[in-house]
């Protein structure tokens, strides 16, 4: 009986499947000359069955026979309902060309080259379909989570964490192990202290989506071990105007006492246009010669104000024109953004004497930072039947006015616990990039195509008139000071990137019998060349005769200094050395080939080879050289043969197994490779090392992923890396043990073994009452080991083996999202976002001292966004709700006795931030 019942059940099931019908078709985009429209949503209205179109605009759904309504929708386009009837076994084809609803119907569309790729579901589908291992985040998710800049947005991707002032860590690897592309073109950094542009300078309004490649493909540069980040700027596709304004308040930062340089307390500096008064006086000449000059325009005074609220403003407009008899379209977009921010950081600032268990410096530090950021984007896009052309012009500018007060003792001088050091610093970076890129179908069927682009960028970074006052604190407002030593030190540091030119060109051949899944063979070139000049000059305020100490109000000391200059008691003499100027030329040229082969419906692989030649020419003078001497030169040239293999096996339609292996290399950050000493008045120094070499990296990844629905996924990845000659930050050995110097060296090798886990879950699958709730989580776990190079100059490491410097053994990101409506015209999204990273080595310990560690930092944010009547967007967010203490500490495993009661070296709290913004789109 059981066998008969089972047979009847199977027969009934088989007959049921046999009687099913299929609905399939292709959705085209009317706005793009009837090109396929990927990632459009297809729904059977009566049964709620749904799918999305693939990258070729095609879809297919299996249903029971009957009469239904097919609903086609896409963000910013018309909703189309098509009634139809099917009978058993029938395959009905329903094609449709979807048109835009017009600008007045748009709500949160961020202007971008392929509008679909801003959507979370679209990016998730692309991640599923791609052969290589990559992750993406689009404008929709950035907006939903209330993220204002790209750097913060990337921390929502598995294995990525952010450290204030130090940029992004990916898979536990520091900024130096990452690389950045903009629209697939190489770009320089605008800071010598960062490998890539600090991505917090990119407002999300100028970004369409971001791809993060954690594995290597031959068409991207070989210079990375953590990840290559490709930022796709917004490309226009619609007619609309958007205006946004926001304000923010952070506890203990805004509406509180704030110190601001007198030079910056004006309207011009408020909008980021100050700093001209800090330039080196022309009387010192173009070349250092020990001249005396007192014609400075910058003041030593500091104003005490109440810090106002943080503010932001953004305006964008886009439109289109029809060109020619075929109605080809020219789209344009202009977007500009500005924001300013007031920050206060207060805590301890200590260093240990080398080989001793006592503090060298024991200070408290309070920083007052006033920051501005501005951006402007002009984008043009022309699309015809077989050609797409894009032009982008992007300008980024950032400024920071810093007042930093340190109080305590330095150089073990415990008997002087009230030493006072003030730093008055201005920093500015300018970045201007122009890009032209596109693609052309050599044949109408797109089986032969060309793509390429050119980018020309100029950058400038400067710290003009970075100056110090030292003395002894005698009250909250007064110090006792005396000329000489590091008092009245003025530094002028700037790096001009005279040009950075990059380009790429790729030929693609598609072939195969399956028109829906063609193979592809690519040949291409990508490369860049850049030329930079760095200048570092400094002057001292020297007494012209014996110097007597005097009392002065520290915030209004300029009058005292100017009087002493007028009375010929004091003058500023340049003491720059022959090291003051360096020149760097760098070039990389890569030729590659890549084969994407679809073996069958389940198995495809991507195998490629890149030959990349790098040249670095460094011109410099030694500190012992006369300034008039010719430049010395160090030249390094490397030819890297970089193979890669990416394999994807589709276990089922909704799950994949991936394998990736490759070889890459890593260049140092610019400052790490320059022989420049940045000296602080507290005796600490940071110094580059021109002898540093590139690292070579061997990488392997194995990933399993499941996509239960178009809004859900689970992934688990195992990865391993072997790094030859890793670049690491370390404390430099000193003959006296006093005055900590941070520098950079290659060590022997390092290994990383890790696992990443990620899931995105719609909670309605647990209980239907949880409709609208989703939970996402990703985490990385790692084991690293670095082996030191005992033969390197200055070797004095405490441990021969240890964790890799800069690598966290674990990190976690998660978010809980709730989407709901309040009436027909008010759509809401609330998100709770949490991330934390594990302990990592900030600098390698020497002379018996343990390493300096960055301790875990927990961050919890809340974001509420409302869209009202499809035009108004209102956001409210609470940032850093937990407000933990940021800490750097000396480790507990020093091989010498520690006499101090605390291992805490640096600390501060960021405060809890409250912000709101409103935008109107029309």
Structure, explained:
- This protein is mainly beta.
- Helix content is 6%, strand content 55%.
- It has six helices and 52 strands.
- The strands form eight sheets. The chain has a 22-stranded antiparallel β-barrel. Strands 1, 2, 5, 8 and 9 form a five-stranded mixed β-sheet that branches.
- Strand 6 (66-73) and strand 7 (80-86) form a beta hairpin.
- The longest helix has 17 residues, at 2-18.
- The radius of gyration is 30 Å and the shape is globular.
How big a fraction of the residues is strand? over 45%
Per DSSP, the total helix count is 6
Would you tell me the overall average pLDDT? Answer: 87
Instruction: Look at the helices and sheets and give the structural class.
Output: mainly beta
Can you give the helix content as a percent range?
under 10%
Uncertain residue segments:
1-18, 102-116
Number of DSSP-assigned strands: 52
Over the alpha carbons, how many angstroms does the gyration radius reach?
30 Å
Largest sheet: 22 strands, antiparallel, barrel
General shape: globular
Oligomer: single chain
The first-to-last residue Cα distance is: 69 Å
Write the layout of secondary structure elements.
Layout lengths: L1 H17 L2 E9 L5 E2 L4 E4 L5 E3 L5 E6 L2 E8 L6 E7 L4 E3 L2 E3 L21 H10 L4 E5 H6 L5 H5 L5 E4 L3 E4 L7 E5 L2 E2 L20 E7 L13 E7 L6 E11 L6 E5 L5 H4 L31 E5 L3 E14 L4 E25 L6 E25 L3 E23 L9 E23 L6 E26 L4 E4 L7 E23 L7 E25 L6 E4 L4 H9 L3 E5 L6 E18 L4 E18 L11 E21 L2 E12 L10 E3 L5 E3 L7 E12 L6 E12 L2 E5 L9 E6 L2 E14 L10 E15 L13 E2 L7 E12 L4 E12 L2 E4 L8 E3 L2 E12 L3 E8 L5 E6 L13 E6 L3 E9 L1
Parallel strand pairs: 1-8, 1-9, 13-16, 36-40
Antiparallel strand pairs: 1-2, 1-5, 3-4, 3-6, 6-7, 10-15, 11-12, 13-14, 15-16, 17-20, 17-52, 18-19, 20-21, 21-22, 22-23, 23-24, 24-25, 25-26, 25-27, 26-29, 27-28, 28-30, 28-31, 31-32, 32-33, 33-34, 34-37, 35-36, 37-38, 38-41, 39-40, 41-42, 42-43, 42-44, 44-45, 45-48, 46-47, 47-50, 48-49, 49-52, ...
